[in-house]
């Protein structure tokens, strides 16, 4: 059974204009699928076997001064921590960031691909692409690969002509505009801290502190999150990395060891 | 489909693409069309050949809108125009879908010109036999623009331009009389250019005005007649003034 992807080809030049100048950027390829009586069930079993759990904590929120983006840096394969130093905040271009949750390769590749498309848009139209447009391009691509096993839970954060922009895009093809998002297995914990401490009128330092604290608390409770808490700020002049603190050290910063008084001192008894 | 691989548009020994040049001839035989860009208004005017009695003139609209903020007028093969306009309209919506923003005038002009060029470099097809005048306001900056494309696929921006029959005389008139105008003055300038080569009267001209707030508005016969009357009056007054004040006896 051959998968028919002709319906996925759009007339938009971004999706591969008829005679190709850059065929690598075309729409989804097609390939033969195994014969099966119940195609939907087949997909379900495959998904359960592979189970990409999106073990990570990433968050982003819009506030008065711009967008704050933060993430941990742990990569896990089941119970094994494969890396403590993964860059989960991907720099798409000098004024747009993407966060990584899910399959690392999928996120990295498609964010790089998005960067290419954004640059081509700039060159063709002599103006930067909006955050809306960039997130839409990514969402359209991910939708065309829906059901084929991509695992991407990303947030596109940036600053364009309309001000700060934040979108959540995932591999199911969903795309949401919002002011506060957290993605990953540690997101419930991060949301708890983020939602209780959030105010629109924060300064950049206060917002960075809130983001850092939210990531720290998520790494404290979630086994799949840890490593280094990176915090980025996106303002009118582009993004800037504010901090990258080891969460182990942050623990002692938030819960310092209090010197406790010793109850009884052992002293030399004077010789009789 | 191997039989249709041979290109119709091939180079001549001295570097001409004759099919493209013949297409330009077809444009030169088409109805006159003029476009004028003002500071807040853009006007498109097209010659209307004398109405055939039984024809429903409303079905022969020569100035069409591609989107809320973009309009197009053309000279040449009207059937080719229909195909190009449909593709452009789809592209306008497709752009809105993929980047959630309306097209800029430059973008859609580039798309139409790209389409016209593709048909000069493909097997088994002939070039589109029309030149278009594309007008609109930039959706972000509000700046008005006027662009022209031709069968070869080139495009450029203009302050005022004409295409189709007698376009040279219209362009000469525009070069002599163009100045930055707005509102009614822009409309009058476009009609005056058209009247240089077309029989006077509302039923021989089709005029459409585009403004940032109201979009495209087709002027009806009565409004055009009123403008034409104003223009004739101004011309008469200018002639009289030239002759000098009446001599005292």
Walk me through this protein's architecture.
The complex is a heterodimer of chains A (272) and B (249). Chain A is an alpha+beta fold. Chain A contains six helices and twelve strands. Chain A has helices spanning 39-50, 104-125, 131-144, 187-197, 204-221, 247-254, and strands spanning 58-63, 66-71, 75-77, 80-83, 89-93, 96-99, 153-160, 163-170, 175-177, 180-183, 228-235, 238-246. The model of chain A is unreliable at 11-22 (pLDDT under 50). Chain B is α+β, with helices and mostly antiparallel strands and 249 residues long. Chain B has one domain (25-49, 59-234): Aminohydrolase, N-terminal nucleophile (Ntn) domain (Glutamine Phosphoribosylpyrophosphate, subunit 1, domain 1), CATH 3.60.20.10. Chain B has a five-stranded antiparallel β-sheet with strand order 8-1-2-9-10. In chain B, strands 3-4-5-6-7 form a five-stranded antiparallel β-sheet. The A-B interface holds A 10-15, 18-19, 121, 124-125, 127, 129-130, 132-133, 136-137, 140, 161 and B 90-91, 94-95, 97-101, 104, 106-107, 110-111, 118, 140.
Write the layout of secondary structure elements.
The complex is a heterodimer of chains A (272) and B (249).
Chain A: H1 39-50, E1 58-63, E2 66-71, E3 75-77, E4 80-83, E5 89-93, E6 96-99, H2 104-125, H3 131-144, E7 153-160, E8 163-170, E9 175-177, E10 180-183, H4 187-197, H5 204-221, E11 228-235, E12 238-246, H6 247-254
Antiparallel strand pairs in A: 1-2, 1-10, 2-11, 3-4, 5-6, 6-7, 7-8, 8-9, 11-12
Helix pairs in contact in A: 4-5
Chain B: H1 18-29, E1 33-37, E2 41-47, E3 63-67, E4 70-76, H2 78-99, H3 105-118, E5 130-137, E6 144-149, E7 155-157, E8 160-163, H4 167-177, H5 184-195, E9 205-211, E10 215-218, H6 221-243
Helix pairs in contact in B: 2-3, 4-5
Instruction: List low-confidence stretches of chain A.
Output: 11-22
What is the straight-line distance between the termini of chain A?
99 Å
Q: Kindly report the average pLDDT value of chain B.
A: 89
Structural class based on helices, strands and sheet pairing of chain B: alpha+beta
Rounded to an integer in angstroms, the radius of gyration calculated over CA atoms of chain A is 23 Å
Number of self-contained structural domains of chain A: 1
Examine the secondary-structure arrangement and name the CATH architecture of chain A. Answer: 4-Layer Sandwich
Q: In CATH, what is the homologous superfamily of chain A?
A: Aminohydrolase, N-terminal nucleophile (Ntn) domain
SSE string of chain B, helices as H and strands as E: HEEEEHHEEEEHHEEH
Protein name (chain B): Proteasome subunit alpha type
Family (chain B): Belongs to the peptidase T1A family.
Domain Proteasome alpha-type subunits (chain B): 4-26
InterPro entries (chain B): Ntn_hydrolases_N, Proteasome_alpha, Proteasome_alpha-type, Proteasome_asu_N, Proteasome_sua/b
């Amino acid at each position: 059974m051959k998968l028919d992807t002709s319906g996925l080809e759009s007339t938009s030049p971004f999706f591969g204009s008829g005679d190709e100048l850059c065929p690598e950027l075309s729409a989804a390829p097609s390939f033969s699928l195994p014969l099966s009586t119940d195609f939907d069930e087949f997909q379900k079993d495959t998904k359960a076997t592979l189970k990409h759990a999106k073990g990570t904590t990433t968050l982003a929120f819009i506030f008065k001064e711009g967008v704050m983006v933060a993430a941990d840096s742990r990569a896990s394969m089941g119970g094994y921590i494969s890396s403590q130093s993964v860059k989960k905040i991907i720099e798409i271009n000098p004024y747009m960031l993407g966060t990584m949750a899910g399959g690392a390769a999928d996120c990295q590749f498609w964010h790089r691909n998005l960067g290419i498309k954004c640059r081509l848009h700039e060159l063709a139209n002599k103006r930067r692409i909006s955050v809306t447009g960039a997130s839409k391009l990514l969402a359209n691509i991910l939708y065309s690969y829906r059901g084929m096993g991509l695992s991407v839970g990303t947030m596109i954060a940036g600053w364009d002509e309309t001000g700060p922009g934040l979108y959540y895009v995932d591999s199911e093809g969903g795309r949401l505009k919002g002011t506060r998002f957290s993605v990953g297995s540690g997101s419930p914990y991060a949301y708890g801290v983020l939602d209780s401490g959030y105010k629109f009128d924060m300064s950049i330092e206060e917002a960075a502190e809130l983001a850092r604290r939210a990531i720290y608390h998520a790494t404290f409770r979630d086994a799949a999150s840890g490593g280094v808490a990176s915090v980025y700020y996106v303002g009118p002049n582009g993004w800037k990395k504010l901090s990258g603190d080891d969460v182990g050290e942050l623990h002692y910063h938030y819960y310092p060891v209090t010197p406790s008084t010793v109850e009884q001192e052992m002293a030399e008894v004077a010789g009789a | 489909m191997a039989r249709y691989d041979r290109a119709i548009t091939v180079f001549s020994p001295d570097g001409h693409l004759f099919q493209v040049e013949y297409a330009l001839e077809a444009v030169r035989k088409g109805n006159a069309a003029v476009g004028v860009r003002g500071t807040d208004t853009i006007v498109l005017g097209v010659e209307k050949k004398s109405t055939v009695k039984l024809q429903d003139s409303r079905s022969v609209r020569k100035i069409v809108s591609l989107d809320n903020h973009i309009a197009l007028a053309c000279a040449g093969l009207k059937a080719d125009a229909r195909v190009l306009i449909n593709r452009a309209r789809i592209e306008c919506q497709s752009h809105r879908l993929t980047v959630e923003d309306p097209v800029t005038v430059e973008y859609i002009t580039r798309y139409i010109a790209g389409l016209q060029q593709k048909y000069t470099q493909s097997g088994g097809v002939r070039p589109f036999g029309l030149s278009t005048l594309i007008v609109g306001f930039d959706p972000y900056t509000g700046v008005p623009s006027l662009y022209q494309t031709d069968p070869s696929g080139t495009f450029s921006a203009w302050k005022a331009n004409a295409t189709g029959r007698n376009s040279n005389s219209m362009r000469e008139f525009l070069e002599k009389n163009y100045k930055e105008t707005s509102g009614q003055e822009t409309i009058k300038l476009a009609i005056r250019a058209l009247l240089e080569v077309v029989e006077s009267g509302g039923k021989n001209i089709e005029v459409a005005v585009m403004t940032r707030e109201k979009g495209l508005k087709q002027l009806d016969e009565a409004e055009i007649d009123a403008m034409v009357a104003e223009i004739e009056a101004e011309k008469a007054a200018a002639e009289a003034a030239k002759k000098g004040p009446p001599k005292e006896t």
